[in-house]
Design brief:
The chain is built from 2 helices and 5 strands, in the order ααβββββ. It has 134 residues and is an alpha+beta fold. The protein has a 5-stranded antiparallel β-sheet. α1 packs antiparallel against α2. The protein is elongated.
């Protein structure tokens, strides 16, 4: 794997608090051009949760407490990956462990990795860029 992609993966994993060693290996292999899906499915797409955190997010005229999940999808059909964040409002009267979440929103970043491992993340059409960029 080229040093550019190694540094991008290192930066992504530095902030990750949900990804296992096996999932890291799957992501690095995909970025390096490995195209044999270790988790076969009809869609041939693997989604891995990288990070989960509680953040205060400004919405319109208020600030809401949100559960923020950073995920990556690896599309073995096209060789493209996409990172995105899911936002779910946390019901402040319930504890996070009880799953008190409602609503959702996402932002995305995507990239392409050819068989040679070439690829890079780019901001999505929404004009927003993730905190996790590959």
């Amino acid at each position: 794997m080229q040093s550019k992609y190694y540094m991008e993966a290192h930066d992504m994993f530095k902030r990750a608090n949900c990804v296992s060693r096996l999932e890291k290996a799957i992501i690095i292999g995909f970025m390096a051009g490995y195209r044999n899906n270790p988790r076969p499915s009809p869609e041939n797409i693997v989604t891995i949760k990288l990070n989960e955190s509680i953040e205060k997010v400004h919405q319109d005229d208020r600030t809401a407490l949100m559960l923020v999940e950073s995920l990556i999808t690896l599309d073995y059909n096209t060789g493209q990956w996409k990172t995105f964040r899911k936002y779910r409002e946390v019901d402040q009267s319930q504890q996070l462990a009880e799953g008190g979440v409602a609503g959702s929103d996402t932002t995305a970043t995507s990239g392409t990795a050819g068989a040679s491992g070439a690829g890079s993340g780019t901001p999505s059409a929404t004009g927003q860029q993730n905190s996790v960029v590959i």
